[in-house]
Amino acid sequence: MACYRGLAGGYLQGLDTLTASEETPAVFQAFGQFWDVQCRLGRGVSASVHKVSSGVASAAVKEFESSAQGGDYGFLKEQAVLEELKGHRNIVTLYGTFTNYSGPHLSTNCLLLELLDVSVSELLLRSKSHGHSMWMIQHLARDILEALFFLHRGHYVHADIKPRNILWSADDECFKLIDFGLSFKEGNQDVKYIQTDGYRAPEAELQNSLAQVGLESDVECTSAVDLWSLGIILLEMFSGIKLKETVQSQEWKVNSSAIIDHIFASKIVVGSAIPVYHLRDLIKSMLQSHRAQRITAENALCSPFFSIPFAPHIEDLVMLPSPVLRLLNVIDERHLQTEEEYEDVVEDMKEECQKYGVVVSLLVPKENPGKGQVFVEYASAGNSKEAQKMLTGRTFDGKFVVATFYPLSAYKRGYLYKTVL
């Protein structure tokens, strides 16, 4: 098995309300291997998620409590959905299922899952109300629309798109959807209460309200509810503001379009406004109150917003891990004047960087773009994350080293972004 490392979060349905802590298992035995538990990532009503490792491989174990209400059903449902959806790069990978025996007559059903990194929920917290770059928003929008197009083509509805259920994969360099505990096939909805407050489509809001008083809704929830949730997330990513109170207000119900216009008008935009208008129009098309007027994932992917290339901000490269590290403030002109000086400094950098993992390649451009920067490709994102942690803030010739991640795909193409600071 390949090496999977990360700071995973958001694997659980219903983590907003954590229940009382119980003893975390020390080890799981699955597929002929012992998986040591590194930590518990979270606990919900019917399942807990643990970060585990076996040798150099890391993964996540989602352990369902068979004694909890709906525990077995939740396990079987999520297993079936993930097995049917297996293989799409923007959907979390299920490696397999197993039963964990913790004692006589004590057993739990478990999913062994791909371990991912930072969640969109964490990215929103880090934005400090400034919002994220167009590069980040476009990346996220395209990745999740690709996942939804695949999902909806198979007539599945995720039914709980929210920031906590979208995570970054450092090794695959993309955002992925997780947590299919509320998902269903169109026409076969088996749960009445779907989606999360702040990301719930109007038709789901109506259905939930009627279900609370024991009434049935004659409006079916379809794949359109997922587009609504994604639209809210993109608006939050752009504005840097949580919009739960806004989307639940009477003003939003009366004229959501005007509120979206106000959010975009109040944001200072650097450069051409045309891409911003494309994003605004894309979000509006996802947030149509009537589901029949809401854009589909397939049509959303054809938006002109995706035809415009963007460069990442330096903050993006700090927040999104990848196997490539970029070091600033370590090389200056005198190191590039002679071939001997250059080779010495490259050798020194390689020796230093190898302390934190296997270095696949190292590049120090002599000309712009990238002149004087150091690009280090590690064998895994786990290695580069360790190096980033250890090198950031170190001094080199009296200067503080700045270590950011760098997109592996751009590095492999030899494309060095002129990042927006």
TrEMBL record:
Pfam families for the chain? Pkinase (PF00069), RRM_1 (PF00076)
Q: Does the entry feature the keyword Transcription, yes or no?
A: no
Gene of this entry: UHMK1
Query: What's an example GO cellular component term for this entry?
Result: nucleus
Any one GO biological process: regulation of protein export from nucleus
List the protein's name.
Answer: U2AF homology motif (UHM) kinase 1
Quick check: keyword Aminoacyl-tRNA synthetase in the entry?
A: no
Q: Which domain of life is it from?
A: Eukaryota
Transmembrane stretches in the record are: none
Gene3D superfamilies recorded: 3.30.70.330, Phosphorylase Kinase, domain 1, Transferase(Phosphotransferase) domain 1
SMART domains annotated for this entry?
A: S_TKc
Matches recorded under InterPro entries: Kinase-like_dom_sf, Nucleotide-bd_a/b_plait_sf, Prot_kinase_dom, Protein_kinase_ATP_BS, RBD_domain_sf, RRM_dom, UHMK1
Which residues are recorded as binding ATP? K62
Q: Which residues form the Protein kinase domain?
A: 35-306
Listed A to Z, the keywords are: ATP-binding, Nucleotide-binding
A molecular function annotated in GO for this UniProt entry is: ribonucleoprotein complex binding
Extract the SUPFAM superfamilies matched here.
Protein kinase-like (PK-like), RNA-binding domain, RBD
